[in-house]
């Protein structure tokens, strides 16, 4: 049976693929390919963040009673991601690849640190706390993470 850690970690990798494609296109100076890849990344990562905030976090908080714990920290980091995503979209709209790449470097560091915390701490806690509903929750997450 797939764990939440495996499932959500796999979605991290899915998002990473789009991010790396956008970054590679930007470094090559291909603004159109960068915009396309980044649009796919933006959609995928926003779906991921929304799925966590609307499905995973509330269920974990209900199961554990921890409403001021790790999910609060993760939501704060999600807000930072959304602000950076908006800046990066604006930079691509202005064809500012240098600015985009600067923010991409920042985003990458923040995203890697965030994903490590989720994959090594939070998701294993969720697997334990939500074991009885894991299969149903993964089905709901699959639906929430389908491309729009």
What is the count of distinct domains? Answer: 1
Number of strands: 0
Strand content: under 5%
Number of helices: 5
The CATH superfamily bears the name nmb1532 protein domain like
What's the CATH topology name?
Answer: Four Helix Bundle (Hemerythrin (Met), subunit A)
Q: What are the secondary-structure elements, in order, as H or E?
A: HHHHH
CATH class descriptor: Mainly Alpha
Q: Detail the poorly predicted runs.
A: none
Give the overall form: elongated
Report helical residue fraction.
over 70%
The CATH architecture classification is: Up-down Bundle
Structural class: mainly alpha
Task: Kindly describe this structure.
The chain has 148 residues and is mainly α. It has one domain: Up-down Bundle (Four Helix Bundle (Hemerythrin (Met), subunit A)). The protein is built from five helices and no strands. Helix 2 packs antiparallel against helix 3 and helix 3 packs antiparallel against helix 4. The chain is elongated. It starts with a helix and ends with a helix. The model has no long low-confidence stretch (mean pLDDT 95).
What secondary-structure arrangement, pairings included, does this model have?
Layout: H1 4-27, H2 31-64, H3 70-93, H4 97-129, H5 134-144
